[in-house]
Amino acid sequence: MKHIAWAAFALILGSSAAMADVVKPGDVTFDEGAVPAPLTGQAGVAEEGRKTFISRKLGNCLACHENSEMKLEQFHGEVGPSLDGVADRWNEAELRGIIINSKNTYEGTIMPGFYVGEDFPRTAKQFKGKTILTAQQVEDVVAYLKTLKEQ
Ligand code: HEC
Fold first, then answer.
1. Of 57, 76, 102, which is best to mutate to test ligand 1, by the most ligand atoms within 8 angstroms of its C-beta?
2. DSSP readout, 79-113?
3. Which pLDDT value is given to residue 4?
4. Which of 74, 103, 115, 125 has the highest CB neighbour count under 10 A?
């Protein structure tokens, strides 16, 4: 029993230490549409970002975007532009800003803000303060997008 209590305690300590260097949605600083500072102290991992991009439960980016690198994947959407060569069009800060809240880049866009914490009056309790992606997932997706260059 004691073991379990200690394990839980260590887990809480560990996660609060990890939380400490995460920028909260309300604290994100935009420079025009761009967000120059990473949201976490841990560099994004492109391979993880690719999974988030495809996952219907997470980014679901593929529902609206395609890119040739994923031609063999399942269904992809054409609501948004193809992301081929997107890293040549936008720098890292701009890409991060588009994922966090694309409305600062494209007014009135249908692309969701993936790291926006505002609570709307009718937000269901379990979604209050929740973002679609975590800070680390945003960094991972940015890392993945940075690999999409025109060859
Ligand atoms: C509901 C559809 C939709 C979803 C889901 C979506 N986007 Fe978009 N996205 C758009 C649209 C539409 C645009 C073009 C901006 C506009 O005109 O509104 C866009 C623009 C972009 C751009 C700039 C493209 C360029 O070529 O300049 C990037 C980068 C981007 N999206 C990445 C993502 C990522 C990463 C995800 C998933 C985390 C995502 N989008 C999810 C619809 C979507």
1. 102
2. SSPP-TTHHHHS-HHHHHHHHHHGGGTSTT-SSPP
3. 60
4. 115
Going by alpha carbons, the residue nearest to atom 12 of ligand 1 is: 80
Q: Please indicate whether residue 35 or residue 123 has the higher confidence score (pLDDT).
A: 35
**What Å distances lie between residue 150 and 68, 87, 134, CA to CA?**
10, 8, 28
From first CA to last CA, the distance across the chain in angstroms is 58
Does the domain at residues 24-145 carry the CATH identifier 1.20.1050.40? no
Choosing from 62, 111, 141 the residue with most ligand 1 atoms within 8 A of its CB, the one to mutate for a pocket test is: 111
What pLDDT does 117 receive? 79
pLDDT at 8 over 70: no
- More confident site: 108 or 6: 108
